[in-house]
Amino acid sequence: MAKGIIQKGILLLASLALVFPLAACGGANNGNNAANGGSGGETGSQQNQTSNQTEELSGEIILNGSSTVYPVALAVAEEFMNANPGVNVQVASTGSSNGIKAIINGEADIANASRLIKDEEVQTIQANGDDVVQMPVAFDGITVVIHKDNDWAEEMTVEQLKMIWEPGSQVTYWSDVDPSWPNEKINLYGPGTASGTFEYFTEAIVGEAFASREDYIPSEDDNVLVQGVSNDKYSLGYFGFAYYIENQDKLKAVAIKAEGSDEYVAPTLETINNGTYAPLSREIYMYPLKSALERPEVKAFIEYYMSEEGQELVELVGYVSLTQDRIEENLSHVR
After folding, report:
1. Element (H or E) spanning 329, and its range?
2. Is pLDDT at 13 greater than 90 in this prediction?
3. 107-143: per-residue pLDDT in tens?
4. What start and end residues bound the annotated signal peptide (predicted)?
5. Distance between CA 281 and CA 246 in Å, rounded?
6. Which one of 57, 168, 183, 275 is at 20 to 30 Å from 201 when CA atoms are compared?
7. What is 143-279's CATH number, 2.170.16.10, 3.60.21.10, 3.40.190.10, 1.10.150.120?
8. CA-based torsion, 106, 62, 200, 153: positive or negative
C-alpha cells in the first residue's frame, strides 16, 4: 500500500498548485470496503469493530511550510487518512519561513521546516499564549544538480560552489570556475529566500546564512527548479534529495568535496545517514503547536508519522529515516 501512496504523492507533486486539500473520501471508501467484509470474510462483530476504529478520530489537521518536507508529509497524510477517514489532513508547500508564519498566525497546526526555528519566532508564539515543539522527521542531503548531459562538473569542491553562489560573484561562465570547462553561461536555479533549504545551503557553502548572489531563478516549488535544470544543459541548481531521487533519470547529482576532505562524495541514503556527504547533510523538521498536541487526531497523526510504517514512507520518498532515539523523543511529546 505504501508504494501506491508514494505514486499518488508523486502525481500530486507534479501539480503547480501550492495547497493540496487532501479529501478523505477515498480513504472512507477503503474503510467501508474493509468494514463490509469484501473478500476478507469478516464476521458481523469484526465489521462493527473495524467501523468503530475507523470512525474513532475526526477533525482537520493543517500543515504548511517547507517544500523539502512536503513529499514526506504528503505521503504520511494520505496513508494516515486511509486508516482514519474521519480526519482530513491538508498539506501546503510554501517554504519554511511561511510555514512558521502560518502557525504564528493561527493558520496551521504544524509547520514543516528544513531549518531550525528561530528564538524570535518561538517568542512570538509564546507571546500569543501558545508554544511549539521541535520534531525532526527525517535526514536529508541538499543535492546540487546539473543537466544529465553535463560531463564536466560531475565533481565540485565547496570552494567552487562558493565562487558561484556568493554575493557579488564574478562567475558568469562555466570557464570562470575552471578554464577547462565550457565557455558557456551558467544558468542558476535555487530555492527562494523563504526556504529553509536556501538558508542552510548559504550558511554551509557561502559561510553566512542568506548570503547569496541574486541573479538566479528562485522558486519555492522544487518541481519548477527540477524542470529548469533538466531543460538547460548549462544550468546548475540545488534542492532536497527526494526531488533528485524522483527525477534522477533527467538530472545528475554533483559529488562534493568538503574543505579538508580528500574525496568527492555523492549524496546517497548511506552517505547522508553517516554524515560523509558534507556539509549538506541535515535534519528536516515539523513544528506542531502545543495546543494542537492536545487534540487526539494530531497525537495520532504524529504517532503514525513515527511508526514503522510512517518511517518506511520516509525512505520510500527518498529521505533517511530517523534513529530510534529521535523517534522516542518525538513520541514523548504526545504520550
Report:
1. helix 324-331
2. no
3. 999 999 999 999 999 999 999 999 999 999 999 999 9
4. 1-24
5. 18
6. 183
7. 3.40.190.10
8. negative
* Rounded Cα–Cα distance for residues 324 and 193 (Å): 33
What nine digits make up the cell of 119? 528564538
Per-residue CA distances from 57 to 165, 202, 290 (Å): 48, 42, 19
Q: Is 165 left (phi over 0), alpha (psi -120 to 50) or beta?
A: alpha
Q: What are the residue boundaries of the structural domains of the chain, listed by start?
A: 2-139+284-331, 143-279
Burial of 51 (0-12, 13-18, 19+ CB in 10 A): middle
Q: What is the CATH number of domain 2-139+284-331?
A: 3.40.190.10
Q: In the chain, what is the greatest distance between 2 CA atoms, to the nearest angstrom?
A: 76
Cis peptide before 279 (omega within 30 of 0): yes
Distance CA 150, CA 235 (A): 9
